[in-house]
Write a structure and sequence with these properties.
mainly alpha
Length: 65
């Protein structure tokens, strides 16, 4: 598994958890979506993604094919 693929999987899991908490607590779900949105905006504007920064220390980069 490489950094970019693992990052996509983690984001999908976070979205799933946030959707699952909607029925239980709208405040928790909103907080999860807000943090995820801020991380994705930071990645889009600056090119720095906190998830990718952590994962690149553990996993190799994906090979360009």
């Amino acid at each position: 598994m490489c950094v970019e693929r693992m990052r996509s999987l983690i984001i999908a899991i976070i979205i799933g958890l946030a959707m699952g908490t909607v029925a239980e607590s709208m405040k928790i779900s909103f907080a999860i979506f807000l943090v995820l949105m801020l991380a994705l905006l930071m990645d889009g504007f600056s090119g720095f993604c906190p998830v990718r920064a952590i994962l690149k220390n553990i996993l190799p980069k994906c090979e360009d094919k």
